[in-house]
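User: structure tokens for this one?
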Amino acid sequence: MTPRALFPTVAAVLLAASLAAAPVAPPPLARDVSFDDGWRFHLGDAPGADQAAFDDSSWRTVDLPHDWSIENLPSPDGVKRSGPFDRELSAGKVATGWVVGGTGWYRKRFRLPALGDRRVEVRFDGVYMDAEVWLNGRLLGRQPYGYSTFAFDLTPHAAPGENVLAVRVRNEGQNSRWYSGSGLYRHVWLTTTGPLRVPLWGVVVTTPEASAASAAVNVAVEVENHGEAAAGTRVRVRLLGPAGQAVGEGETASAVPARGAAAAAVKVGVRAPALWSPSTPVLYRAVVEVAAGGDVVDRLEQPFGIRRIEIDAERGLRVNGVPHEMKGACLHHDDGPLGAAAIDRAEERRVETLKAAGFDAVRTSHNPPSPAFLDAADRLGLLVIDEAFDMWEREKNPQDYHRFFGDWWAKDLAAMVRRDRNHPSVVLWSIGNEINERADAPGLEIARRLVAGVRKDDPTRGVTEAICSFWDHKDRAWTDTDPAFALLDVGGYNYQWKEYEKDHARAPSRVMAGTESFPLEAFESWDAVVRLPYVIGDFVWTGWDYLGESGLGRAFVEGEDPGEFEAPWPWHIAGSGDIDILGDRKPQSYYREALWRPGVLAVAVHRPMPEGKKGKVMLWGWPLVESHWTWPGQEGRPLQVAVYSSCERVALSLNGKSLGEKPTTWSDRRKASFDVVYAPGTLEAACTGKGDPATKVALTTAGPAAGLRLGADRALIRASRNDLSYVRIEVVDDKGTVVPGARPEIRARVEGPGELAALASADPNDITGYRGPRCRPYQGIAQAIVRPTGAGALELVAEADGLAPARLTIRAR
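Assistant:
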């Protein structure tokens, strides 16, 4: 979590100071300033671009976060394409979604005043990948891993007046098993402090005692001294409650040696705290001040939550003493049509959508997430398994992180743990996913070092690892994984729910979690969590659909798809998510919710198959079902209708005529199947069991497409590049019913102070791209993502030939 500075945070302070004459005493500067705007970008190599005098005037200007792989840019061969997908040039091809990586350069010119004894540091929340950074032609360093946050000290090479920061990014070769994105895809920050300061991630807040009556809050503070003389400091901590009220304070003295560092610890008691949990995500703030000679020399604040996590095999997971079963989703880091660009609102919306679908936990597969995602998880109440690596020393792809692991794992692991340890949402650390050497002697030794590395920086949370079967060594038994599980606080089981009870008999103290599970085995996987206290949760692959691993979760008509594990061109979406890339829930999401929560009712119709053909489903997929009752050409033919419900009984009717009732109890796996002869009209399902809520769901046949309908998730947004409005575009008939088979070309534009950040559908085969002004809907739905460029009223205009157009006003302030 990024500490929030309490000094003024207006970037204009920095600019104004830089334009003034050199002052007698350096003026105050903002401690932490966004460094996202006004970068120059070039796709391809650019010899000499590391030097300050290099002419970048012909380069594009971009604001961060920025992902070049999702854009409609010329490829390195100089050919401009309509979309980001390229069958020939894409590294990794089907695995990474057919997008182009390569080399890219970023440069930013900025001005600084004379610094005096102040320190200036640049921090990158994440760069994919293999970044090298220069300031004024001097190499600051390198960061190979694309998911780590890292920082460089600019002070030795900074100059009064203009400075040039240059970054070369190389996303080359086959280095990922999914869509990674390319470039400066997360935020960049500039931090200015005095010589006595709290360094990056130098505040650690823990709550070793937390109950409804009282809490003990420990605040550990590291203080650095870049001066030539030792300094006596006082570290003061004030705790602020959720409404900003003071709830406790304390301070301690700390002597900091010259050119050295010292640690200080302050313990503060809080009476009757509001405890953080997924249902009550209450946040506090620790305001930390470092004073020397009577003056405050550094000041920042750290959000945190007061909560207690306990895990054991006898009673499972408890949050603040209350048993909790994690309803989990595995989640890759891309934001669908935005690519990997981690814009704050996009990250927040993912958390909101997952929570609304019933999820209360996420495993960040298979890398540390953006700080913005964890901030949203803290605010909205989502438990997180924070994962470090997808491979160790043995490769999964020729150019992946295994090349750097030996030299970099300790730094990258520490970056994850130190950056994220103040997030109350984080409940477990994961050291790896389906590691090739997971049960071999060298792998076990690596695991020991990783576990020790985690516990060095955070002894308060447990460590897990996602372990799968020996698909790569068919001669090995599952029990060969026992030494690997013995090193962990929680054993992560990928697709191995059938082993839970056998393993418990052999290792009764082992705590387990289903760190990956198949959608088709949702009932079995969750039933095990409900029955077995030592299984603390289940995480489906995946909660949200993602780019890359193309077609992994597809369903198709027998004989129509020649692909095996993954689909052939032009599939570019995995297809395995409960929620599609636009953020819309698929039928399987409602089935999963019916296993978790009362009062859920949903209807899904199996797509009719050609004569003599059957539907086929990949292991990570769901049958070909759609939630509508518009099937032209099927009149008089039977269709299979699935009803998903947490009610005890459901009734189905067509045009007011009863089609019967069926149970949907737990023993019925919370679903029922009906054969219905298709006729246009209204298909309605209702809960009818004793004690069931009066819940009904109706599907109505659509007529011919008549117009477009727009609906924004938020019509009032902030005039910030970090905010977005997601607008659903529906093709509807004259009664307002979505027409699922309609595929007109939709043209969209933004009028006013905003831009079209993306225009997309969830069609896994549409390679038009997400940056153009045109797209075709999928099942009658498309989406426009509007990003403000300033304050005022924006209008989104959507048009299609032969249909009534639509306009929607969004206000940015």
